[in-house]
Write a structure and sequence with these properties.
The structure is a single chain. The protein has 465 residues and is mostly beta strands. It has helices at 63-67, 133-136, 270-277, 286-294, 404-411, 442-445, and strands spanning 4-6, 12-16, 22-30, 43-50, 57-61, 83-92, 98-99, 103-105, 112-117, 125-127, 142-145, 150-158, 161-164, 174-178, 183-187, 212-214, 221-225, 229-236, 239-245, 256-260, 302-308, 313-322, 331-336, 342-347, 352-363, 367-368, 373-374, 381-395, 416-420, 427-432, 451-456. A seven-stranded antiparallel beta sheet has the order 24-23-29-30-31-28-25, with helices on one face. Strands 1, 3, 4, 6, 7 and 15 form a six-stranded mixed beta sheet that branches.
């Protein structure tokens, strides 16, 4: 299981050694299938730092650098947005000589198994008469020379001899052997202050615990980590309706998986399932309308998320509640949550929309001196650079106190979208206008309901240039 980098919080790398003078950190960032070797095309940053006050360590902070390569989007599709990160470190003493005995935090970076100097030059071999290769090196390990060139270990021939797949060593050249380069997984998530330095995800579920809500005939999407999750089961009245087994192919495009209660994360209503999932033609009629009014298609009341972390296998249970039919048009708000995953919340009560405008005004001269008159229908006060924006106020239904964490993460999200659940679903980017919100408790407020204000994150007038 790859250690997680939450790029909205600092991620620190500490390199220490009693003889350390400076350290060079190379940051490799890439998408796709996880790699265990370096690819020069993935090298994005090279950073060098020297120790301060002879403290024998240096510290790098890399989150902001990594985040430049993650852009979470939502266009109606629930996709996985994350990247792999390889951290390659070189350490030197005051003479500029390499040090191989350094330690690191996180410890995953510290991957040197042995080091030394080649005592002979033989094609496709590494020979060191002082080595103990049989107890320290395995087939598949990587040998690295003083220039950073690499070769894979094909066989361990003896304590002092390795066969390699590439000829890179000559007599007197320094080397070190590693087991492979560790890839961290980075998302646009963050940690809380109380979680401490470099917090990690040790469970499969990628939304907060507590009750979640749905509307009639709508599927829900549960984001989970492919690395730790074994299965997701949707249940109704104590019976399992649908179970999805989770597999992981180590590709970033599926590290965050969105498991839909209807088995299709892109079609969340009955009509969409007919059109998209089944490839059919939807023909509406009064009988079908009456049936849909009476029957909640896709109803569930529990979600079981089974996962395995570093120490145990556990199951998280989410309670699912369905909002009653309302005279108001339901609105789904999708946002990037604490884990860097897309999460949905429904606002099913009254919504209010408003139009706002900002302008620059100036006073123009309307005098016509040629005719010694002026046009009384001309604008003396004129408008310049008019910008129009829309705002919307949304209201939740009455919800459980356990949803306070969901509200909190929505307040802290930098990327938010709104979808009107009509026949033609339109996705609108939003920016949260409310800068503060009192989290409610049932002991104080009895019934819990929230009102939130948003600005549409685009001007009304198309001014894209």
């Amino acid at each position: 299981m790859a250690k997680l980098i939450n790029t909205r919080s600092p991620f620190y790398v500490k390199i220490a050694d009693s003889n350390l003078d400076s350290a060079e950190l190379k940051l490799y960032i890439y998408e796709g299938v996880k790699k265990t070797s370096l690819d020069s095309a993935d090298l994005k940053y090279t950073i060098t730092k020297s120790e301060l006050e002879a403290n024998n360590y240096v510290v790098f902070e890399i989150s902001e650098l990594v985040r430049d390569y993650i852009e979470t989007k939502y266009d109606g599709e629930y996709d996985s947005y994350c990247v792999w990160v390889i951290i390659d470190v070189s350490v030197s003493d005051t003479n500029g000589s390499p040090i191989y005995s350094w330690t690191s935090t996180p410890s995953e970076i510290e991957n040197i198994k042995t080091s030394g100097t080649a005592t002979a030059s033989v094609v496709d071999e590494l020979i060191d008469n002082t080595a103990s290769f049989t107890s320290t090196v395995a087939v598949g390990d990587i040998a690295v020379d003083s220039q950073g060139n690499t070769a894979n270990v094909v066989s361990v021939d003896s304590d002092t001899q390795l066969t390699l797949d590439t000829n890179i060593f000559t007599t007197g050249e320094a080397y070190f052997i590693i087991s492979g380069y560790y890839s961290f997984l980075a998302t646009e998530g963050y940690g809380y202050f109380e979680e401490g330095i470099n917090p990690d995800l040790d469970e499969g579920l990628m939304i907060p615990e507590g009750n979640i809500y749905r509307v009639n005939d709508r599927s829900i999407n549960i984001p989970v980590s492919a690395e730790t999750t074994n299965s997701v089961a949707f249940r109704l009245n104590g019976e399992t309706i649908y179970t999805k087994s989770i597999s992981d192919n180590d590709n970033t495009n599926q590290k965050i998986q969105y498991i839909a209660s209807d088995g299709n994360s892109t079609a969340d209503s009955y009509i969409e399932r007919v059109l998209e999932s089944q490839g059919g033609v939807f023909e509406n009629n009064t009988l079908l309308e009456a049936f849909e009014e009476e029957v909640d298609l896709g109803e569930i009341d529990e979600v079981y998320v089974n996962y395995t972390n570093a120490t145990e296998t556990k199951t998280k249970v989410l309670k699912v509640k369905t909002f009653d039919c309302s005279k108001y048009e339901p609105i789904r708000v999708t946002f990037v949550n604490k884990f860097g995953a897309l999460q949905d919340m429904y606002f099913t009560r009254r919504s209010n929309e408003s139009v706002n405008r900002k302008t620059e005004d100036y006073k123009a001269s309307v005098m016509d001196f040629t005719n010694f008159s002026y046009d009384t229908s001309s604008h003396q006060m004129r408008t310049l650079n008019l910008i129009g924006n829309e705002s919307i106020t949304l209201n939740t239904d009455y919800i459980d106190e356990s949803c306070n964490e969901h509200i909190k993460q929505l307040m802290l999200s930098e990327q938010i979208w709104m979808t009107r659940l009509t026949d033609e679903e339109k996705i609108v980017p939003l920016k949260l206008k409310s800068n503060s919100l009192q989290l409610k408790k049932s002991v104080n407020d009895k019934l819990i309901q929230y009102t939130m204000e948003f600005d549409v994150a685009a001007d009304i007038i198309n001014n894209i240039r």
